[in-house]
């Protein structure tokens, strides 16, 4: 896999140049040598006629750089009119468009069926700690088929074998090769291409090589929270918003960032691991809570308090015993004061987490996903609790549930794969 696809650390046209010069003090993963699939594969192998895998990224940067040079201004200064025009184009949110692969080799041209508007069908793998789900999407990015298998936890070999079988299922179901992206927990380090994840048996594995071995070519990989933000910013609950955070309340808590319709550039691929930021001391003091141990081995992480397991623990701590969140919500709706107190405490703690996002990222819209987000009254409780936690005078982000539900993350990965397989408006 191309390290620039892996981990989705924001290696998008022009953004990488900006970050190299402005934000990271010149340290930025260098553009790696292109990696090609085997002869006749999709994308076309080296030496084939037509665009090469990931050329759309490199080409975009090259073109913008040329425009900047032509204008006589430096990249840091933003360049002249032609450069600014290109900048506006790159900042345009992706809306999809008819793509023409006429210059691709015949076999690649046949890969990816087309819908009535010319978009390719595409697919994604949603990889979590319990299941690997393959989803096929039509040209309008609507899920049409899915196939779920348990996630092998015993070894990396078993894990990648299962991934290969799911890729084969997608190709067989589609009747051809097609763009396939992966949304998974954890990250792929931009510099090394090595996976780092707590819930899968693949930490330290070279993703590009392992995926190529089972799928025949590299597959773009996104962190699942980044994929959620990316999906919802393109045809979802945050469509058209300039700054979007996707926030997953599942077994843990994690956030992804999407700016101008594209995943935001990051340095090491870990942002925004909100769940492993510390819960503010003022919040713990307010509710008389101690420093609870987090799964990462540290104490007092946000993830220890507000995702599904955190809420269950909170209910037990407040005297309700083991109770599942849906039952807790039902009891609160039925007038149970104790259940209502637990949910009020949870909402207040969650609002503290949202306030951290607001003060550090300042999103226009926060799209909420994950299993706990399906709890009745989830958004309403957060909206009610948030104002009291915001610093006076600061803007309040809009909270929305993910429009594409539990398929949103894998939809984002599929969209990324489709975009990588086609020339994009901002690069051509
Ligand atoms: Zn932690």
TrEMBL record:
Q: Which GO terms describe its molecular function?
A: ATP binding; metal ion binding; methyltransferase activity; N-acetylglucosamine kinase activity
> What does the entry give for GO biological process?
methylation
Q: What class of enzyme is it?
A: transferase
The protein's matches in Gene3D superfamilies, at most eight in alphabetical order, are given as: 3.30.420.40
Q: What is its EC number?
A: 2.7.1.59
Q: Which Pfam families match?
A: ROK
Q: Which reaction does it catalyse?
A: N-acetyl-D-glucosamine + ATP = N-acetyl-D-glucosamine 6-phosphate + ADP + H(+)
Highest taxon of the source? Answer: Bacteria
InterPro entries according to UniProt: ATPase_NBD, ROK
Renumbered to this chain, region (Disordered) spans 1-50, 65-89
Keyword field: ATP-binding, Carbohydrate metabolism, Kinase, Metal-binding, Methyltransferase, Nucleotide-binding, Transferase, Zinc
The signal peptide here is none
PANTHER family per the record? N-ACETYL-D-GLUCOSAMINE KINASE, ROK (REPRESSOR, ORF, KINASE) FAMILY
Q: What's the name of the protein?
A: N-acetylglucosamine kinase
């Amino acid at each position: 896999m191309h390290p620039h696809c892996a981990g989705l650390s924001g290696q998008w046209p022009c953004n990488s140049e900006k970050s190299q010069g402005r934000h990271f003090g010149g340290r930025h993963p260098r553009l790696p040598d292109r990696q090609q699939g085997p002869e006749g594969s999709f994308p076309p192998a080296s030496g084939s006629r037509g665009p090469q895998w990931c050329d759309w990224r490199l080409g975009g940067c090259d073109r913008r750089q040329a425009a900047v040079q032509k204008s006589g201004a430096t990249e840091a200064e933003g360049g002249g009119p032609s450069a600014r025009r290109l900048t506006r184009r790159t900042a345009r949110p992706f809306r999809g468009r008819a793509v023409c692969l006429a210059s691709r080799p015949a076999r690649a041209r046949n890969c990816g069926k087309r819908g009535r508007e010319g978009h390719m069908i595409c697919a994604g793998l949603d990889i979590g700690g319990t299941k690997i789900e393959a989803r096929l999407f039509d040209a309008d990015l609507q899920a049409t088929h899915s196939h779920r298998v348990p996630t092998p936890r015993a070894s990396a070999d078993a894990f990648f074998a299962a991934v290969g079988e799911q890729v084969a299922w997608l190709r067989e179901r589609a009747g051809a090769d097609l763009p396939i992206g992966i949304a998974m927990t954890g990250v792929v380090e931009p510099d090394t291409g090595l996976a780092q994840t707590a819930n899968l048996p693949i930490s330290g594995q070279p993703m590009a090589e392992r995926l190529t071995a089972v799928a025949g070519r590299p597959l773009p990989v996104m962190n699942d929270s980044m994929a959620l933000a990316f999906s919802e910013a393109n045809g979802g609950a945050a469509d058209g918003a300039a700054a979007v955070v996707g926030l997953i309340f599942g077994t843990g808590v994690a956030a992804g960032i999407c700016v101008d319709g594209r995943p935001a550039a990051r340095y090491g691929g870990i942002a925004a691991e909100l769940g492993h930021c510390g819960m503010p001391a003022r919040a713990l003091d307010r509710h008389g809570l101690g420093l609870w141990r987090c799964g990462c081995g540290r104490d007092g992480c946000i993830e220890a308090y507000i995702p599904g397991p955190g809420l269950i623990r909170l209910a037990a701590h407040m005297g309700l015993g083991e109770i599942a969140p849906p039952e807790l919500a039902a009891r609160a709706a039925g007038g149970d004061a104790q259940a209502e107190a637990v949910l009020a405490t949870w909402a207040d703690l969650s609002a503290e987490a949202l306030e951290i996002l607001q003060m550090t990222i300042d999103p226009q819209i926060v799209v909420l996903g994950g299993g706990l987000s399906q709890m009745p009254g989830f958004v309403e409780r957060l909206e009610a609790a948030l104002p009291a936690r915001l610093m006076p005078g600061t803007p309040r982000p809009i909270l929305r549930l993910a429009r594409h539900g539990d398929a949103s993350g894998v939809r984002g990965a599929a969209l990324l794969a489709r975009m990588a397989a086609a020339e994009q408006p901002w690069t051509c």
